[in-house]
Design brief:
The longest helix has 17 residues, at about 250-265. The radius of gyration is 28 Å and the shape is globular. The termini are far apart. The protein is built from 18 helices and 39 strands. With about 675 residues, the protein is an alpha+beta fold. Bound molecules: adenosine-5'-diphosphate. Adenosine-5'-diphosphate binds near residues 131 and 235.
């Protein structure tokens, strides 16, 4: 019996494992780095042990140290979560050598699936269908290229050690092969310390469908059906669902049986996922097996009613599987949306910052929020930028999707940019509603999806004006007379105010007049902005604006953003059913202007390292020419010429670290040149 469990992980997965352990009366030990001293997983565990500095290699990846901690604290099992040490065969072995149960498969199974190319050999021998491709040991460029040429383009280059979409490049024609290979190898080397490559036929319209398998130590194996994870960006999942839309019973059982065959081929034990590409004609191909619990396991839990962490713990202590294949069935439909600190409108790049506002929707039986952060926490550069997983269940796909949209509308985060509005838009996007899923879904619809970028709607205008009026009223009420307040009161018109606010680059002016002052604490206002006008009444209740616009009552959550000390204007964000809207209350002009015209495209999108320059100083380039490559959070990002012009000077050399926002080079646009010459 497992009595005390150490969770060698952090964030939402550590919290997830701790909650099941608690349910089973198992004592828990959390580990934490400098960055996580006040983290939720630390607060939830019975004991918590400091294991080192913030970078994962100095804390969560210190296998030997974690084993020592487990021994000192009388732990009988370690759950590795996902990521970090979860697929580290040496760690699994070290646990065994120290008589600690590793809640995961045997080291030999991890090893067998550790390399995508070795895994393919095993699956080929076991008769599991593979994507056509080259997975040999000869890694000379000539051989790799010949494989691609023979197969015909497009092909996909994949790092054998890959994961998380890193070290992967599509190649559309022969001419692009060399550059793509160089980039994929570089990314693989920096992420995984090696650059062994696979070449695969690139399927243009597949779906990513994966099977959850479970095996025990007594030779039993079952599959807990499939998850469709086709909606991806950068080859990484953002929305997962179960069951896969349109799946036939025949394909489901063929895939399920192939997955069990794959697991049996490596004497698997515990929770595992066999990933397949499912082609339009119903054929499917093995991609890889993940020898751990997956991020998206909750959708399987929602449709089967099983607790997979509980299954893991039972199997780890030698019990037989809780259910047989016949006893498992699918109930309803579930979605998981991954809430990331990232900017969908800037190439989905991860962002960092402080979660100043963090208000998830209410958890119920049908809406589950798996998270590891609290309001005020930092999303740092050290770890994955996932903030939470929002999981919903419905009787069918349509109901579940509607519920997902609703729950996303109720998820309010400010302080870091997130993909929430993008995800909410996806739930309303017809091709997604019709389940026209392929792994290129996001790319294919990118233009339509980018239109989800929140911009204001006319219904938002009275909300913004009223918020500013009320905030100022609250701030100035006791202290000052109206004409000293921060909005432009007109001294001769006792009940009028002129407010200016800016959204993105647009300046809006509101004329506000009290029409009925008989209720002095909550007067009625007429608000006019351009051609629109509304009758409005409102109050601030905590962090909500309770507002009636033309007789319709709404409760709108808001936050005031912290401004720089030197900044006079106030910045607000409101969370409307249409999305998150940030705006600035512009104070009456005092004659200062701090408009700095920076060219964002030549600045580092975030903290990172310069990888290489792609042209020389002095080069004359055309718009869109790649100029340099930088790496941030283990992903490469290419900086392109914003217009025709000259690369005058690089401010950073390859290998140098740069801060997010730093200007990377001096670029003279052609128009500037001409202006200079004339
Ligand atoms: P990782 O381990 O880095 O996540 P995978 O091998 O699991 O990489 O692939 C990730 C995603 O890349 C898949 O879900 C799919 O969208 C895409 N992909 C992988 N192989 C192919 C292929 N041969 N053709 C088309 N898409 C592919």
């Amino acid at each position: 019996m497992i009595k005390k469990l150490l969770i060698a992980n952090r964030g939402e997965i550590a919290c997830r494992v701790i909650s099941t352990a608690k349910k089973r009366g198992i004592k828990t030990v959390a580990v934490f780095s400098d960055a996580d001293r006040n983290a939720l997983h630390v607060a939830m565990a019975d004991e918590a042990v400091y294991i080192g500095e913030a970078p994962a290699k100095d804390s969560y990846l210190r296998a030997e140290h974690i084993i020592d901690v487990a021994k000192t604290h009388g732990v009988d099992a370690i759950h590795p979560g996902y990521g970090f040490l979860s697929e580290n065969a040496a760690f699994a072995n070290a646990c065994e050598a120290n008589h600690i149960i590793f809640v995961g498969p045997p080291a030999s199974a991890i090893e067998a699936m550790g390399s995508k190319s070795a895994a393919k050999h095993i699956m080929e021998n076991a008769g599991v269908p593979l994507v056509p491709g080259y997975h040999g040991d000869d890694q000379s460029t000539a051989i790799l290229k010949k494989a691609a040429d023979d197969m015909g383009y497009p092909v996909l280059l994949k790092a054998a050690a890959g994961g998380g979409g890193k070290g992967m490049r599509q190649v559309w024609n022969e001419a692009d092969f060399q550059n793509a290979l160089d980039a994929a190898k570089r990314e693989s080397l920096s992420s995984f310390g090696e650059d062994h490559m696979l070449v695969e036929k690139y399927l243009t319209k597949p779906r990513h469908v994966e099977i959850q398998v479970f095996c025990d130590k007594h030779g039993n194996g079952v599959y807990l059906f499939e998850r469709d994870c086709s909606v991806q960006r950068r080859h990484q999942k953002i929305i997962e669902e179960a069951p896969a839309p349109g799946m036939t019973q025949a394909i489901r059982s063929q895939m399920g049986e192939a997955a069990i065959k794959a697991a049996k081929a490596i004497d698997y034990v515990g929770a595992g996922t066999v990933e397949f590409l499912l082609d339009e004609d119903g054929s499917f191909y093995f991609m890889e097996m993940n020898t751990r619990l997956q991020v998206e396991h909750p959708v399987t839990e929602m449709i089967t009613g099983e607790d997979l962490v509980e299954w893991q713990l039972k199997v780890a202590q030698g019990e037989t599987l809780p259910k047989t294949q016949d006893q498992l069935e699918i109930r309803g439909h579930a979605f998981e949306a991954r809430i990331y600190a990232e900017d969908p409108y800037n190439d989905f790049l991860p962002v960092t910052g402080t979660l100043n506002t963090l208000s998830p929707p209410q958890s119920t039986e049908l809406v589950r929020v798996d998270t590891g952060v609290l309001e005020g926490d930092e999303v740092s550069i050290y770890y994955d930028p996932m903030i939470a997983k929002l999981i919903v269940w419905g009787d069918d796909r349509e109901l579940a999707l509607q519920r997902l949209g609703q729950a996303l509308e109720q998820y309010h985060i400010d302080g870091v940019t997130t993909n929430i509005d993008f995800l909410a838009y996806l739930t309303r996007f017809e091709p997604f509603q019709r389940a026209e899923l392929t792994t290129t879904f996001v790319d294919k619809h990118i233009d339509a999806l980018m239109a989800s970028k929140p911009s204001y709607h006319q219904d938002d205008l009275p909300l913004m004006a009223m918020l500013v009026l009320l905030r100022n009223q609250a701030q100035n009420n006791a202290a000052s007379a109206p004409w000293q307040s921060a909005i432009g009161w007109r001294s001769n018109l006792r009940y009028s105010a002129h407010i200016e606010f800016a959204i993105d680059d647009e300046l809006l002016e509101a004329e506000c007049t009290i029409t009925d002052a008989s209720a002095p604490l909550s007067p009625h206002w007429s608000i006019k902005i351009g051609e629109y006008s509304w009758l409005v009444e409102g109050q601030l209740v905590g962090n909500e604006l309770h507002i009636t616009v033309n007789d319709v009552l709404q409760k709108i959550r808001f936050a005031e953003r912290k401004s720089e000390a030197s900044e006079r204007n106030s910045h607000y964000v409101i969370f409307t059913p249409r999305g998150t809207l940030a705006f600035e209350h512009v104070l009456p002009d005092l004659g200062d202007s701090n408009n700095v015209d920076s060219d964002a495209s030549l600045t580092a999108p975030m903290n990172g390292t310069i990888v290489t320059h792609l042209c020389n100083q002095g080069d004359v380039v055309t718009k869109g020419t790649p100029i340099l490559v930088m790496e941030a959070m283990k992903m490469e990002h290419t900086i392109n010429a914003p217009s025709d012009g000259t690369v005058a000077e690089f401010y950073y050399q390859p290998g140098e670290l740069v801060d997010g926002g730093a200007t990377l080079l001096d670029f003279i646009a052609d128009t500037e040149n001409k202006r200079g010459e004339s």
